[in-house]
Each structure stands twice: as C-alpha cells, then as structure tokens.
Please model this.
Amino acid sequence: MKTLKRILMLLLLCAILAVGYVAWILLGFSISNPHNYKRVGDIPTPYGYERVDGNDPSFCHYLRSLPLKPRGSDVMLYTGDKARFQSLNFAVVDMPVISNAEQCADVCMRLRTEYLFNTGQYRNIHFKDVNGHPLHYSGGSSRKALETYLKKVYVVASTHSLSRSLPRRSLKDMQPGDVFVYAAVDRPGHHKYGHAVIVVDVAESKSGKKAFLLAEGNTPARNIHVMRNLENPFRSPWFFVDGDEEMLLLAVFPYKSNELHHF
Model:
C-alpha cells in the first residue's frame, strides 16, 4: 500500500512539474523581454558560446548597445495600433518608427545609417535604389536632414536593391551587422514579397558553430524587434547554424544559405 502511495505521489509530482513547464513555455511566448534586459548585449549567450566582434567591432558594439523596451512591451504599428503576431517578438528595440514606409529592408538600412550617423561617418551613408542608382546622404549632423534622407530611401530602395547591392557572406563567416535578404523576384511563383532581417549579435562555440540574434521590421511599418526563435523550447531568441546548411527557417521566413549579405 505504501509503495502504491509513493508511486501515485511521484506521478502527481511529475504531472505538476509538466503543467508548470508548459505554463512557463506559454508564458514566455506571450511576454516580450521576459527578463527585462536593458539592451541587446545583455541577452546571455547560449551555454558554451562566446560573443564575436567580427571585422567591424564598432558597428557590432552599436548593435549590442541597442536599447530594449521594458518587459511586456508590445510591437506597435506606425499608426499607433498593436501589431499582430506578438509571439514573433522576443524584445522591442526602443527606437521610434520615423515613417509608415519603414518596413523590413528599411530597418536594416536604418540601423546601418544610425550607426554611421552617430559615429560621424556621414560620407559613408549611401545606398542604391531599385534601379541601381546611388543615394548619398549630404546632410551632415542634422537629425532632420537624416530622417528626410531615410524617408526618401525607404520609398525607392527595397529588398530587391539590398539583395543586388550588398556582397554575400558565407554562413560560417557570419558577423554582427550582416543581413539575410531575398527579393520577391528571387522566388517566382512562391513569394509575393521579399523579406530582410539583420543580424544584431553573433556568438561562436569552440567547434565553430554560430549562434545569432536577429532583428526585423515588417509590413505595415512597426517597431524594430528582436526576433524569437519559435523552434527553441527554452524561449531563447538565439538561432543556430553549423555553416553547411542549404536552407534556414528564421521564425516564419525561409532563406537560402547564399542569401546572407553584408554592408
């Protein structure tokens, strides 16, 4: 009789732990920035991984310094409405949206531009439009001029221009500031729209495996946010690659291995 009671107690304890674990997982998927990190660089690396700076430590530092909104913050649209699919958001970047045209490729260009602007590298701020024509910034330290420039870029540049103008990088050499991008014309018959996401942090294991954090915007325009890895059962936002993958599923968007680019 005592043995039966012990077995029943053990089964009850296992059931309680299982329910608690499921509740913990579901809660993690419903609340952004659950540990109230202050910036991207505060998000701890996976066990056995160490952060890498890549070839541009200054840009890397800027991305890791991006401030995050407090625990429970929602991704908000430019219109002020709450965005759909909040479960894709791990943490909201504390940066205002400056235009209703600030979408996925625009977010990648904006973060690169904000870094160059904040470090006084005004002459290095330039992109190409969808026809390959250069778009140079000439407004110096004027914040108003910068935002006017970005709003113009958002209208005439896109995933198409980014995928055509940015050099490619192999997965095994991934660095902070790289961009996963494909244009709709690259996926005829399968994807009506392209998409782009930016790598905001990278860590590496001793075996050379990469872990990385991604940030994105989307359509309609909304807050930049660190993406959640929906395949990770521990609510981690880190994605992983060995370097020899042919396809990657990053949240809900598929990418080919040759669709990693860099500025």
Residues 13-28 have pLDDT under 50 and may be disordered. The two ends are 70 Å apart (CA to CA).
